[in-house]
Amino acid sequence: MAVPDTGIRVEPGSFRDPANRVFHAGDEVLRGLGPDGARDWRALAGSAFFTELLAEGKICGTEPVDATRLPGWTAVLRHERIPFVSHPYEWSFAMLRDAALLHLEILRRALSAGFTTKDGSAYNLQWRGASPVFIDVGSFAPLAEGEPWAGYRQFCQTLLYPLLLQAHLGLDFQPWLRARVDGIEPDQMRRLFRGARRLLPGVPTHVHLHGAMQGRNARASTTDVRAQLKAAGYSRDLALATVRGIDRLIRRLDRRDEGSHWVDYQRTCGYTVRDREEKEHFVEAAVAAAPPGLVLDLGANDGRYARIAARHAAQVVAVEQDPAVADSLYRALRAEGEHRILPLVMDLADPSPGGGWRGVERASFGDRARADVVLALAVAHHLAIGRNVPLPEVLDQLVAYARPGGRLVVEFVHPEDPMARRLLANKPDGLFPDYRRDEFERLLAARCRVERQRELPSGTRTLYQAVVGG
């Protein structure tokens, strides 16, 4: 349904369910409900299980507002705004697993109360720091006896299958999910799980049987499938048993520990105690100067500086390229009960692009990242030398992640630093003639107003605090 030009913007990722759609009005998140959606909402709002999940923070805050806010819709809801929207291919293994378990808990409690969820997608979940939250309130509907869970296929393709890939085969799932917005198809999984792999936990039922049933029912209508299940005695109790079985399976899955030299980076990176102390003081002063809403920590590693930023910021997004390191950080933050730091898996030389329908259904990282403070500590040399990105373009990208007037805190690792020498040793001589401190400072001053700088005691690294667009 169209909305008059009132400053209300349609959410590009919300169009697949015709019964409801999400809009943005300034900082508000609104959901328009059609007649069917409004009827389901009235039933849901009066249920005890939904009220309990809201109180527990497992479903995003939701309340009805004046329906005239969105002309043409029967009812309108206002949702809590999630601090930073992320995508499942940016999550670590433990994050995806916890999101899957929350999805199943919500479905189990819905089924027990006579409701179901129409969707099973990983995109129905977001994060408050290290805590998952279910956001697709429009997917709840009253349960019809004998009706299968409509979201099962989506759940397998975007949650269960990626977890099986990582747990059973040691394959990082992020590239698979990034490649297809609808997730991994059963036929793809069946090719990977042949021979003895067919018998691995979860594979016989949720990969091979699922794929066979999908092929068998390819020409049957949804009504026919429902009639067949009802005739076979499919019931809510069987649906609950299935959900509990998937829950037990997922709880047994864990990430293969393949090892990573980045896990021990903080100990082996060559910082002296004095260097580390000076760097921590510099970062804290930069963040505390004007308490920010959003901080990006690019190359977060174990989260040392993300934690410092979180003392002052409303939200910190800690970006780490190595999935094993990001997973360790998430598990630590979860154990700490941290609600302000969101760890994400991402290669800064290949950040998440726009994806899905028309390339905008899932917004790119660059479109989502408009931070008040950007921390780029020991990152520039990895991009410029390790990934052959020209130094001007490295700075252009770092500056683009900050909002106008925001701060960039960047570390330049001098060519004579041991880490820079190690990277340069693997490159042809003379390949990086412009990788020099004076050139870096010239490029930075051309893009920002440098407020202060500090050479670390070791003498081979310098920190800069600059105002973007200043």
Overview of the structural elements:
This protein has 470 residues and is α/β, with parallel strands linked by helices. Helices cover 41% and strands 19% of the residues. It is built from 18 helices and 16 strands. The protein has a 7-stranded mixed β-sheet with strand order 12-11-10-13-14-16-15, with helices on both faces. Strands 1-2-3-5-4 form a 5-stranded antiparallel β-sheet. The protein has a two-stranded antiparallel ribbon with strand order 6-9. 41% of the residues are buried. The model has no long low-confidence stretch (mean pLDDT 91).
The helix content is 40-55%
Poorly predicted runs are none
> Got a strand count?
16
Contiguous helical run count: 18
Principal-axis shape equals globular
* Average of the residue pLDDT scores: 91
Major beta sheet, specifics? 7 strands, mixed
Specify the structural class: alpha/beta
Q: What's the N-to-C terminus distance?
A: 42 Å
Strand arrangement in the largest pleated sheet:
12-11-10-13-14-16-15
- Global Rg: 24 Å
Tell me what portion of residues adopts beta-strand conformation.
15-25%
List the helices and strands and how they pair.
Elements: E1 8-10, E2 20-25, E3 28-33, H1 35-45, H2 48-55, E4 62-65, E5 75-79, H3 93-112, E6 115-117, E7 125-128, E8 131-134, E9 140-142, H4 152-169, H5 174-179, H6 186-192, H7 203-216, H8 222-231, H9 236-252, H10 265-268, H11 273-288, E10 294-298, H12 304-310, E11 315-320, H13 323-336, E12 341-345, H14 365-368, E13 371-376, H15 380-386, H16 391-400, E14 402-413, H17 418-424, H18 437-447, E15 448-455, E16 461-468
Parallel strand pairs: 10-11, 10-13, 11-12, 13-14
Antiparallel strand pairs: 1-2, 2-3, 3-5, 4-5, 6-9, 7-8, 14-16, 15-16
